[in-house]
From TrEMBL:
Keyword field contains rRNA-binding: no
SUPFAM superfamilies in the cross-refs: Transthyretin (synonym: prealbumin)
InterPro entries: Hydroxyisourate_hydrolase (IPR014306), Thyroxine_BS (IPR023418), Transthyretin/HIU_hydrolase_d (IPR023416), Transthyretin/HIU_hydrolase_sf (IPR036817)
Function statement: Catalyzes the hydrolysis of 5-hydroxyisourate (HIU) to 2-oxo-4-hydroxy-4-carboxy-5-ureidoimidazoline (OHCU).
Protein name: 5-hydroxyisourate hydrolase
GO biological process: purine nucleobase metabolic process
Protein family: Belongs to the transthyretin family. 5-hydroxyisourate hydrolase subfamily.
Length: 114
């Protein structure tokens, strides 16, 4: 089986830059447990995986991105979005899960990256 892990990356598509300073929370949905909190760095990534191979547990998770705070800190109106919540199902042995968030004050998209 391939070891599994979870990482993320946030891009500000309105400005065309990595989104530095976005607060990210990872919640395990089965028991409503906060797994970790992190903040994106200058490259729009967290400094460490949200779950590395050693701490990985399969299940249903919610990633919460505080994009409204990010846009307000940049002097922009937060627009339509405040906290973007993405619900994902993670399975053991499926390899690295990478969940990018591409956002503007008005919209977002995501996909399973590599």
């Amino acid at each position: 089986m391939k070891p599994s892990a979870l990482t993320t990356h946030v891009l500000d598509t309105a400005a065309g830059i990595p989104a530095a300073g976005v607060a990210v929370e990872l919640w395990r949905m089965e028991d409503a447990t906060l797994v970790t909190r992190a903040t994106t760095n200058a490259d729009g990534r967290t400094d460490a995986p949200l779950m590395d191979a050693a701490s990985f547990r399969p299940g249903r998770y919610e990633l919460r991105f505080a994009v409204g705070d990010y846009f307000r800190a940049r002097g922009q109106a937060a627009g339509f979005l405040d906290v973007v919540a993405l619900n994902v199902g993670l399975e053991a042995g499926r390899g690295h899960y990478h969940v990018p968030l591409l956002c503007s004050p008005w919209s977002y998209s995501t996909y399973r990256g590599s």
